[in-house]
Structures are given as structure tokens and as C-alpha cells.
């Protein structure tokens, strides 16, 4: 049956809430406003920017209005405030410098991030690349708020004279900013680092006129710190500066001194050496104040950031970086860096806000700040969120510092798989960097899935169609080549057991569990084939008839039916004997899917789905558009036209008076990107999100089989969301 062009009916209004995990991603920077207590901002590497709501005691997301077309702008490479105007906030947005990524943009707001104007830049930014914790690259002139400078990665220094509305390159800046010396290599490629901070000297100049003295630091082991005394028109290297290390941060103290942190690499992937230096501009004097002396040899770690009490220049705090043996540390000095003491040995950490953090020691501490209005309030970032203290000065009197995880409503994770079982917990997830979670209460941050096993990266998850207490998942385990990278649960993900063995490959990959929960089909990464087990990995049988790389899934009704899709060609395969033998799904359905398929797809990008309650029925989507219902004998049952693109599809509880599952689609219909719902099999669609709630790239989507209208979806950096329709009783 061929359905007419997809109709978009009147939008359904939804309430959107984060499914609570509690942090989880790299908060790469913090900026306090110097003119208002309680006003500060956080930036993240893939999850946008936030403002702290001091009255509600939670973070407010500022960039959820960015849609899928602008998902590259959800990585925030830098941010800045106007020190004399509390309304201005500027974000340097752009996630990658790869060829496929678009150019970056400056997002500027004069209402603290309630609304933004976008100013496109002629170069790329790297909010999720090396040196993303350095900074800040973006700075506002303290005497003339119209003027901003921005240090790019590979295009030099840029200046704006009209609140970031227009930009011009500063051609006089030294060429080292764009040279090979200011690049660094991670595991995949060399990345441009360029200018990592710009700092104005507020003691120079006067109000209403451009500040004449400012500094800029280039990430290079050569001469790296440059100064201008004419408002940025010309630049000279600061004399006497250390070389051999890359600067990461530069902070000014109330007495006019500057403090700089260094690492041999820009971070966060690694740092193997580093130092902390004090610079006195009056006489261009440099003093090494590194808390742990190097003694003329590499320290084995670097230094992430340094902060100074705004009212007492003698009080300093500095954070180590990549000091994994035994762990990273914060040091505190009350005499201007002459003597230092480690803080964490006399600290307590309250994990109640996100209990899973108890297994994580702070690391990647690239931003460390003493509140300019409250010297007891200290905050630092980590690779998984923000820690804060309200009694820092107790340390100076021999007391204990109390830290709490200040991540309320700052949800930055990248979920890689979702499942909503018909009984038990309403939501199960596989999450990048954090294994996965069972959510009995969607508003409470739970512990990760019970170990063993403990995965460093959750990858694939599946629930048996007729036995919803049986769950399987795959994941990655760091540093252990013998650990099995697939697990099963027989009690709804409350407890887990590793499969008895692996059939081959590098683990992970996709896994599917039969509808009756008695067998599983696993296609491990790089294994070249899928394998069936009926005793949880004690014995494996190689599947026959499959391509070298495929995503596998199970029929929701018939335990003997499994399916697979070639991740290169999109070809579909079906098994009717429990996964032992597969044959291609040809006919109109198979041909239509191959025609629409657009490579490359990651193995977990679901583009074909088994229909709940219908044995042998599948639904296929593609990024090129179309939702096709078909059978595993090759027939096309019906097809929705008029869908411009489709990213993910999910099934939910049927609407009252309907027998067919509600459908949820992330994609575009009639030129409008968004999240859509259909209660009639795809004949008509209603948009359920709006322009203020787009969340960048929406990934995996699933409905709730027990609550009509409820939808869950994963994002590329804002965690998991749930939506419930307004005015429709759940």
C-alpha cells in the first residue's frame, strides 16, 4: 500500500525534561562575571553552553535552540563576558576542524543567553579537539565593550569593533600562530591549536577608549607569549619568557602580576611535562613557582589552570593535568606561590547528586576558579562535570574542604543506544564513556549498570520482545584484552553477567536477543561474521550467509527470526532458524531499502527496525528520506512519501482507539527538521518539538510501550531527553 504524501498536522505541544544522569561530559571552561555575584557560565566540548541560575541552584542550557543543521556549533571553543555589562555573553561555537565540518560562528547575546544572534566566521573551530580546555581565546576589552579579540586555531588573531557583529584579521600578529609549530597530534591526525588565550591589561588605558596593553598566547614550545601596547596593532614577544612548553592559561592578579600554566602538549589527550610561572610586567621578570619542582627533568604530567583570589593576590590555586599516577591534584598557596599544599588529601566529596561519580577521580582539570565574590566558593571542571566547594578557606586553618558535584541540570553525555521495556524500568541506555544506566526514576541520577562487567563505553543494548526482563548489551573495556565485551541480564538490568566467552573480533559491535530471551546473536566489531549462542557464550555457532560487517536485530515476536543489515550496501538479510542461516531479503522491499541507503553508517545507527507485535514485519528508514514498511519475504506493505530525511525511528504505546504502535521520527518533513509523531502508521505526522527545543543532532529515538505519547531520544552531547504531551493524560 502506498500512502499519500506525508501530511504534517497541527503540532502537538510537549514538555521536555532531561533524563537525569548527572553530568558525564567534559566541561571545558568556566567564566565568572566580575560585576555580579552568582552570575557565571560553563562551556562544554560537545554539549553547548550553560548559565548558572543562582536562585534555582541549577544550570540553564543556552544553546538547545541549535538544530541538526547546526549541530557542529554545539561544541563551544571559548566564551567571554563584558566585565562592565552583565547582559553580554559571547560564545565561540564550532566542534571540529575536519574537512567535513562547517565553519564556526560567534553566538552573541545581550540578555545573558536568553536569545542569540549568530555571526558566521570564515574559519573552523575545534570545541571538541585538542586544547579545548585552554583559554580563553575570546576576550572583551574592559574599557570599551564594543571591542573583542579572538584567537583562532589556524587563521591567526581576529578583532571586532562592534560587539562581535563583524570581524577582521589582525595581520600584524606573529606568523607562529599559524605555523606548524602551533599544531599537535592526537591518535588520528594533526590538529591546529593556534592562539589559546587573549588577556587585556585593565590597568592600562581609560574608560571609553581601547585598552592599549593586551597579551596573546600561542600553543607552541617556541616563543609563545606576545604583547601589544597599541591596542593590538603591533605585537612583540615578551622578553625572558620560558620556552620548551606550551602555555595553557594566563591569569591576572589584583597586584598586576600574571600567572601562567604550561604543558608539553595542549591536552586533554596527554601531557607529560609542565610548569607554573609568575610574570611581573613592571620589570618583565619571570619566576618558576611550579608546586612540584621538576628538578631539571620531565615531570610526567602538566598543569591545567591557575586561579587567584580577586581580593588577596597571595592566594593561588593550581591544578595538575594527566597526573594519573597516583591521581590529579589541586595545590593551594597562601604566600604567592612560595609554598604549596595539596588540597585533596584533606577533602571530602559528596557524590549524592550523581552517585556514579564515586568511581571517578577528578581529571582533565582545565578550568579552576575562585569566585570573585566569595573566596570560599571554588569550582573546577573535570572530564565528567563540575565540582565546587563552599568552605575553601577552612583548608588554610587545618580543616577539611567539602566538595559537591555541581552539575544539576548540566547533562552532557552521548548515548549510543536506548531501550524502553514493557515491564520493569522505563528506560535502559548504553552511554558513551559511562557504560549505561537503568532508570527506575527518570528524575534521579542512578548508579551505572551493576558490575561486573564495567564498560568504559556502552555501545549496543537490546531487550527481548516477549521476555522484557532479558537484556543484552555490548561495550568497551579499557586496558583489559581478556574481558568479555558483551553481557546479559535476566532481571531487567538489575544484575549482569558477562558472556562466558567471545566468538572473535575486537568486541563491542551490535547484539540482539531472541524474542523469547533464550538465545542471542552477536556481530562483534571486526569479527567478519555474526555468532549465535543459546547458553550465554559457552558455545557459539557462526551464522551463515552474512556480509563481513552488519548490524543485527531480533524479531519482536518470533524467537526464530533474526535480521541483519549490511552497513556498506544497506542490503537486508533474514534468518528463520534462530540466526544460524541467513538469506537476502530481495523483492520490492529489499530493493527499496538498498536504493535509499546512504553509506557510511556506524554499526549502531539503526536504519531497519523490527515492528513490535508483528512477526516478520520490518520498517526501514534512511537519511535520504522515506519510511518503508515491509515483510521479510520482500514485500512492501506500505511506504510514506514526502519525508525529506529520517535519522531514527521509535515505537510507542498505541493511541487510544488504535492498535498500531505510535511512531516517533527524528528527521525532516516538508522542509521542517524536528521530532515527529504518527498514530496512524505514518499517514500523518505531527511535530512534537519546537524551534527552542532542538538539541542539535537527535540520535536514537524510542517511545514508551506503557505510556502513550511518551518519547525518549538521545542527543550528540545533551544526554537523554524524555517528552510527554501537554494535555494528553499519560
UniProtKB/TrEMBL annotation:
Signal peptide: none annotated. Residues 229-251 are annotated as: Disordered. Keywords: Carbohydrate metabolism, Glycosidase, Hydrolase, Polysaccharide degradation, Signal. One of its GO terms (biological process) is polysaccharide catabolic process. GO terms for molecular function: hydrolase activity, acting on glycosyl bonds. Belongs to the glycosyl hydrolase 74 family. This is Cellulase.
